[in-house]
Amino acid sequence: MTLTLAVMDSINTLTLGHYLLTSAALFVVGLVGFLTRRNLIVMFLSTELMFQAAAITFIAAGRFHLDVSGQVFVIFILTVAAAEAALALALIVLLYRRKETLSAEAWSELRE
Amino acid sequence: MDGIVLYTLCVLGALGLYLVLRPGGLPIRAVGGLIGLAAFVGLLFLATTSLAGDEGARPGVFFVIFSLIAIASGVKLITHTRPVYSALYFILVVLASAGLFLLLQAEFMAFALIIVYAGAILITYMFVIMLAQQAPDPHNPSARPEYDLVPREPFAGVAVGFILLALLSHMVSGVLRDPPAAPSLEEARVMAWQDLVDMPEQLKAIVLAEQPGVDLAEDAPPQLEATGDGTTALVRYTLADGTAGEPLELTEDALPENIQQVGLALILKFREGQLELAGVILLMAMFGAVVLARKQIELSEDEKRQAAGMRRLGHEDDPEDFHAAEGSH
Fold first, then answer.
1. What would the DSSP string read from start to end of B137-196?
2. How many domains does chain A have?
């Protein structure tokens, strides 16, 4: 805890901006991955990447305001991510059994 | 931050990511990766110089290392043609962001992240990748399915993503130019002591540990008050015989640790059952996953009757059923 007070002043606006930029870049990488990949599993991995970015934002903002609520929110993000992964992977297994392929475009006839 | 330079860096990053994403030779992809990483470093550098003057406020070397690892493995994740390697790169992203959490003094969340993500979620992904793997072509075992090799609309995807990034970094630059009010160091210390005030049992335990053998009054919890600039605090307590005990001075070592703070916030600030709601979400997800992934087995009419313990249709003199009927006499 000595550590906390000793470096409590070390995060200021400048480094908060750096953390926010990192998380924005990570979010965008995840978004691009979700839009461009055609493999269902990699698409859902990309959404997990976006969850990570959101978690970094929460923790950095909470650290900036010296409020642990940001960390509590990350607990809930982890919960939602775990629930999402369980359901999405069950659906992927189901879809794979139907068409024997992981390609998202195998289901593109839903468009019509 | 300078707008033109900012948008140029975003365009450069988009170009880099596009070169990495689109199917091409290794040299082109390597050049693309370098351009993208250079654009990200430039973005960080721009953020640093935009508030130049305060020399001590540069991001630490660990921050640069961890954020570069996170971004680079994120890019590898979305560009690798084998899903198993994508999952492994995701573990690297998780480790790097756990490092960032450690830098932000969120020790509990850092390790929870590693345990839950790298330990549980990623293992599930691995199993699904193994379950849903197409049998390799015996003539060409290294062949990959076409949908892993060719991305879908890489140009449009990268454009959408980097328009979003330009918007976000523009907003972040607004934050840098006009920072929100953060608590000062002294306010922060006083707030940190407030956590200990919310934990009367812990305070009592600290008093007992500091002054063994003291007999505390049951109905008067110790009172804590930050002193001076908040680096120390004074605890006043009442003894069982009604007299005031000698005030105790606490140093920063007595403050609750990160995991205690998180637990306290979870209980004090989120008291209307949010945690229980999270549990319900997890339970429902578990039910959903079990119901979805269960294999449907079609039973014939005879099998259904047999499972229900009934005689099979049209087999009234079935010897097995006959014996079963005899045994019941």
1. PTT-TT---HHHHS-SSHHHHHHHHHHHHHHHHHHHHHHHHSPPP---HHHHHHHHHHHH
2. 1
Please check whether residues B132 and B12 belong to one and the same domain.
yes
* B164 and B34 co-located in one domain: yes
- Predicted complex ipTM: 0.89
Q: Is residue A29 situated within a structural domain?
A: yes
- Pick from A8, A24, A39: which is nearest to B165 by CB? A24
Among A63-77, B45-59, B226-240, the range scoring the smallest mean pLDDT is: B45-59
- pLDDT tens-digit series, residues B40-79: 988 888 877 775 445 445 677 888 899 999 999 999 999 9
Q: Which of the listed residues B154, B177, B200 is the one where a domain comes to its end?
A: B177
Whether B268 is in a domain gets the answer no
Question: B-contacting residues of A 48-87, CB under 8 Å?
Answer: 48-49, 52, 55-56, 59-60, 62-72, 74-76, 78-87
Q: Based on the fold, state whether residues B170 and B195 are members of the same structural domain.
A: no
Please say if the pLDDT value at position A10 is more than 80: no
- Minimal Cα–Cα distance from B329 to chain A, Å? 48
Q: Among A28, A34, A48, which would you mutate to test the B interface (most chain B Cβ atoms within 10 Å of its Cβ)?
A: A28
Give the type of residue at B9. L
8 Å CB contact of B175 and A78: no
- Host domain of residue B226: 185-256
Does the pLDDT at position B282 exceed 50?
A: yes
What letter does residue B58 receive in the DSSP assignment? Answer: S
Closest by Cβ to B175, choosing from A17, A36, A90: A17
Burial B183-196 (b: 16+ CB within 10 A, else e): eeeeebbbbbbebb
Instruction: Tell whether B84 is covered by a domain.
Output: yes
For the entire predicted model, the pTM comes to: 0.83
What's the domain count of chain B?
A: 3
Q: CA of B25, closest CA in chain A: separation in Å? A: 18
